[in-house]
Design brief:
single chain; alpha/beta; 10 helices; Aspartate Aminotransferase, domain 1; 287 residues; 6-stranded mixed β-sheet; 4-stranded antiparallel β-sheet; 15% strand
Length: 287
């Protein structure tokens, strides 16, 4: 057990032979990811000097993944690893177990790295019990499930052969005694995630309704956050400076004017939308 970032790096390092001495692109091992994705996989690819391919999803289709095109892409490039965050961050998009198993079966030469960091708190949480082919490995983040940022706890699910290879690469004592104790304690509360999901799903309905009332474009997500578009490119800084509210700019994902907010209790979301209205009023006055 370790942080999911460490698990991603280990998985890439054991699957990809170093190409540091290779100078010809045809000798590179290719990896593939959805373009809008956590940066951890890109970082791991750089560390082993692998060729990184990115599969596009488009704003005009709410960033949904076109399975037919993805199939063609995997057939054409035959990447060693394909990384998929499911549900996606920051869009909240989701592919079901049947679709993923189909990809894995049709492309047995590719290892599918399935990052399920946000699955437990999504409307598709029952997919945690899904069974996948041997060329699918799943990583789960307790940081997201239990809000323990900084403790760095997560785990991987996959074939015994692959997990044993990963285990051999994990440094001794990678999880300290305090983190181990916290992890054990978390699992003692059997109903925590159920309670969390109940609150998130209830408040998510109110958040999306508030966006519609203001004619703000948003992506109907499936998990603990919601992505929306706003014309003010400095919105996140304005909310922080003037209202002490911190939201996530999606610039780092290459999505200008898109922002991601966590689904919070109703009173906090009311404060957010009041602040958003204030920003909008300021923009109108400047026109």
């Amino acid at each position: 057990m370790s942080g999911t970032r460490a698990l991603t790096s280990i998985l890439v390092s054991i699957s990809i032979p170093t190409v540091r001495n290779s100078t010809h692109p045809s000798r590179w091992t290719s990896l593939q990811t959805i373009r809008i994705h956590f940066s951890e996989f890109q970082t791991a690819a750089i560390q082993v000097e692998a060729k990184l391919l990115e599969f596009e999803s488009f704003e005009s289709d709410d960033f949904r993944i076109d399975l037919e095109q993805l199939d063609q892409y995997l057939t054409q490039f035959k990447p060693k690893i394909f990384s998929l965050c499911n549900p996606n961050s920051p869009t909240g998009g989701y592919l079901g177990p049947e679709a993923i198993s189909g990809l894995a079966t049709r492309h047995p030469y590719t290892l599918i790295l399935l990052d399920e960091s946000f699955l437990s708190l999504s409307i598709h949480h029952q997919a945690q019990d899904a069974k996948y082919p041997a060329n699918v490995v799943r990583i789960v983040s307790l940081t997201k499930d239990y809000a323990i940022a900084g403790i760095r706890l997560g785990y991987a699910l996959g074939s015994p052969e692959l997990l044993n290879k990963m285990k051999a690469e994990i440094p001794s004592w990678s999880v300290n005694a305090l983190a181990q104790k916290i992890g054990i304690t978390l699992f003692d509360d059997k109903n925590f995630l159920d309670r969390s999901r109940h609150s998130i799903f209830r408040d998510k309905v109110l958040v999306e309704a508030s966006f519609r009332e203001r004619s703000v474009r948003y992506i109907p997500g499936t998990t603990v956050f919601c992505m929306f578009k706003h014309p003010y490119k400095d919105l996140s800084q304005a909310l922080l400076d003037d209202h002490k509210i911190l939201i996530r700019s999606c610039d780092s994902y290459g999505l200008s004017q898109w922002y991601r907010i966590a689904i919070r209790p109703e009173i906090e979301m009311q404060r957010f939308f009041k602040a958003l209205d204030s920003v909008n009023e300021g923009l109108e006055e400047r026109r």
